[in-house]
Amino acid sequence: MSSRRRLHRVLLAVLPLFGLIAAPWLQAAQANAVPHWRPAHVVVVIEENKSFSTIVGNPDAPYINQLAGQGLVFTDAHAIVHPSQPNYVALFAGSTYGLTDDSCPHDLNSPNLASELLAKKLSFAIYSESMPEAGFTGCSASNGLYRRKHNPVADFQGHLPATVNLPFSDFPRDYAKLPTVAFVVPNMMNDMHDGTIAEGDTWLKAHLSRYAAWANTHDSLLIVTWDESDARSLSNQILLIVVGAHVKRGSNDAYVNHYSLLAMLERFYVLDRLGDSAETSALNLF
Questions:
Q1: Looking at domain 39-279, does it have CATH number 3.40.720.10?
Q2: What residues form DSSP beta bridges with 140?
Q3: pTM for the model
Q4: Domain residues of the chain, as ranges?
Q5: C-alpha distances in angstroms, 164 versus 72, 97, 112, 246?
Q6: Which residue spans within the chain are E strands per DSSP?
Q7: Which of 30, 179, 189, 251 keeps 20 to 30 A from 11, CA to CA?
Q8: Is residue 276's pLDDT more than 60?
Q9: How confident is residue 121, by pLDDT bands cut at 50, 70 and 90?
């Protein structure tokens, strides 16, 4: 028998065995693979000072609970600390930078979500309701309806263009003109801080429901979350909802926090991991 024919017979005998050995490994690899998807647009709405249990099932928040039924709810989501300001900064830049209060002003100079996106030739903007003008760095405006403590971009404004720090009146009605990633911050009455849950729910429906429907058919996402829980709770558990294209409906009970959300945005757009987001698992939508 020729050596070539002998080799052929050996291969015929061995290859099926290789398949049996390799199949479980390949199946496991496929099961653990995370699909890489790059949304056209992501809008993150940040509400104020309400815990998971305060909002879920609350009849004063019918629209938010409707969104929860349409998307993916993270049932073990948490803020980083109390009070507000360090949570906003953590979500934007991967660290609280030692902030422990809502004091103003601060001038921070480090990589952040806006600078990382701009470096990739992508775009970012925060839209703050009742803020008077682009690039505004004042601590308060509009009789206290706007507060800088809820605008992390202002703390980095000295090193960013004014075009990433916009009043909500500039939020485009043509959603195709939105930046790659946008933060939306309602004013103190409409974010549930000073106003009621019902007022915040009504505002969200009035201003973002059309985008939520659009996102489903335009490869985009709407994310609604809270900066921190109420009553200075030790668990600091908050509601986190993701709706839009490719998002599975249901719930996810993994422990996540603001750094997990930041890590997901970084993964979407292949950005360097900022601060503590590098030590955190990204939100899993699939």
A1: yes
A2: 147
A3: 0.88
A4: 1-33, 39-279
A5: 28, 21, 12, 27
A6: 42-47, 72-78, 124-128, 140-141, 146-147, 165-167, 181-185, 221-226, 237-244, 250-252, 256-257
A7: 30
A8: yes
A9: very high
